Amino acid sequence: MEVEKAKRLFGTNGVRGIVNRELTPKLVLELSQAIGTFFGRSKILLGRDGRASSRMFSEIAASGLVAAGCDVYDAGMAPTPAIQYLTRKGGFDGAIIITASHNPPEYNGLKVIDRDGIEISSDKELEIEAIYFSGEHRLAEWRGLGERFPLGEWLEDYREAIKSKVDQTAIRNCKPRIVVDSANGVGSLVTPYLARELGCQVLTLNSNIDGTFPGRLPEPTPENLGYLCEIVRASRADLGVAHDGDADRAIFVDETGQVHWGDRSFALITEHFLKGNPGHEIVTPVSSSQIIEDVASKYEGKVYWTPVGSPYVSRAMATRDSKLGGEENGGIFYGPHMPVRDGAMATALMLEIIAQSGERLSTLMESLPRYFNVKDKIPCPKDLRFKVLDLLMGEVESFRVETIDGLKVWHDDKSWILIRPSGTEPIYRLFAEAKSQEKAQELVSRYKAILGRLIGDSGE
Ligand code: MG
Q1: What is the per-residue pLDDT across 349-394, written as a single tens digit (0 to 9) for each?
Q2: How far is the CA of 35 from the centre of ligand 1 (A)?
């Protein structure tokens, strides 16, 4: 795996690190100079999330880009998908977004966006890293420095783009009551306004931007959404939505206060989409539930499985011209809008589903097939992780094994286990799915034991 070895800055979604420890002002300056060198004399959009350190890093990145001769257009604070939308719509050559998405408050990072609005490919990441590590970034002559331009109000245009993709009349007639939990992040700049413009009754939670995330941690996991569930119930709302820190993800809560994990809401959106577009292809990572295939096959749809990570889904959708993608973590990629995950677009689609069906969200969710998942991990030295996976492949007895990302072993057509080495930690992640909790647990226990033995043998 040459790529694994050579990559040292970019992870699954850009460059991330703890502020002033891993992600230092010096690193951000030199990296943005390298990014500016890569794009050449160009128009770069610069945006940021609401983290405490985001303004500082945004100023530093702007200076690095200007020094490299790029013109910088300052989009200010906005959700990641809004900046991706503007990159393509505004004809920019690329964008830098200062964000650490769902990571804890002490983190920050950079995402680099290509002119099509999608995160740059891993080949381009390697090119930027090569410039960075060589130190040979371009420093423009004094008369060739870039300029900085502020942008006026532009989020309205982005909200209009989303609204134009859904049945506004149906939503307006239904007047759903929705509670929006923005995790004190930039989702609060879009989703509450969007919902209000669609005729919803909107209540907001954690919707003042605050980089210390006083309301809850920025990852919308069920354990972080207790207040949202309570408020949905207490206010008799039809729907609750929780974003991560940069609002490219959306996790939904039904009217009873029940959190539904991302692949179930994705299944509901898949069904809704395929009813109107039978036979279309759906794109999702190998870690997603079999529920997506169950729903797709009902409407002659096919599923295209990708490695884990939103850029893989986006790139596959763009090259295959697929119109819908999704991830189990609450990422919905709606192609008619753009092939990147977008929490506000996902919310608009969910409102459309509730409005058009006239059903409660809990009822809609109950109609879906039921699966059980178990997650676990096991330590493995980094230098052994691919060797052990090869050994494991030689041992498994299964009617189907997939190697799209890690090893996915099928035991029957409804139960499987995915074993992936983590990109950042010396561990394997195990993820099993089955029709019963016991079966999923049994798969995890069995493979954990096999992996433990193989790791022990290989280390001797
Ligand atoms: Mg995010």
Answers
A1: 999 999 999 999 999 999 999 999 999 999 998 888 888 999 998 8
A2: 21
- With both helix axes pointing from N to C terminus, report the angle between 155-163 and 80-89 in degrees, rounded to the nearest 10: 90
List the catalytic residue out of 101, 310, 314, 322: 101
Ligand 1 ion: Cβ-proximal residues, 5 Å cutoff: 101, 244, 246, 248
Which residues make Cβ contacts (< 8 Å) with residue 6, sequence separation at least 6? Answer: 126, 129
Q: Are strands 107-114 and 177-181 parallel, antiparallel or unpaired?
A: unpaired
Q: What does the radius of gyration of the chain's CA atoms come to, in whole angstroms?
A: 22
Ligand 1 geometric centre to CA of 310 (Å):
10
Please state, in angstroms and as integers, the Cα–Cα distance from residue 109 to each residue in 10, 47, 321, 358, following that order. 10, 12, 30, 42
Q: Tell me whether strands 239-243 and 250-253 are parallel, antiparallel or unpaired.
A: antiparallel
Query: What is the spatial distance between Cα 45 and Cα 23, in angstroms, rounded to a whole number?
Result: 21
Q: Which domains does the chain have, with CATH numbers?
A: 15-152 (3.40.120.10), 157-366 (3.40.120.10), 372-458 (3.30.310.50)
Q: 102 C-alpha vs ligand 1 centroid, how far in Å?
A: 5
Tell me, in angstroms, the distance from the centre of ligand 1 to residue 178's CA. Answer: 21
Percentage with pLDDT > 70 across the chain = 98
Q: What is the pLDDT of residue 2?
A: 39
What CA–CA distance (Å, rounded) separates 460 from 452? 13
**Is 101 known to be catalytic?**
yes
Q: What is the pLDDT of residue 5?
A: 45
How would DSSP label each residue in 246-309? TSSBEEEE-TTS-EE-HHHHHHHHHHHHHHHSTT-EEEEETTS-THHHHHHHHTT-EEEEE-SS
Q: Determine how β-strand 427-434 pairs with β-strand 239-243.
A: unpaired
- pTM of the shown model: 0.95
Q: Using the mean position of ligand 1's atoms as its centre, give its distance from the Cα of residue 342 in Å.
A: 9
Residue 40's Cα: distance from chain center in Å? 28
List CB contacts of 98: < 8 A, sequence separation 6 or more: 46, 47, 48, 49, 51, 54, 57, 58, 61, 108, 109, 110
Confidence of residue 457 (pLDDT cuts 50, 70, 90): confident
Do 105 and 185 form a contact (C-beta atoms < 8 A)? Answer: no
pLDDT at residue 7 in the model: 56
Q: What is the pLDDT of residue 70?
A: 98
Of the two residues 457 and 322, the one the predictor is more confident about is 322
Identify the residue whose tokens are 């090869």: 390
> What is the number of alpha carbons within 13 Å of residue 110 lying toward its C-beta?
32
Closest CA to 38 of 58, 60, 74, 64: 64
- Angle at which helices 343-357 and 155-163 pack, to 10 degrees? 30
Measure the CA–CA gap between 220 and 79, rounded to whole angstroms: 15
Distance 398 CA to ligand 1 centre (A): 35
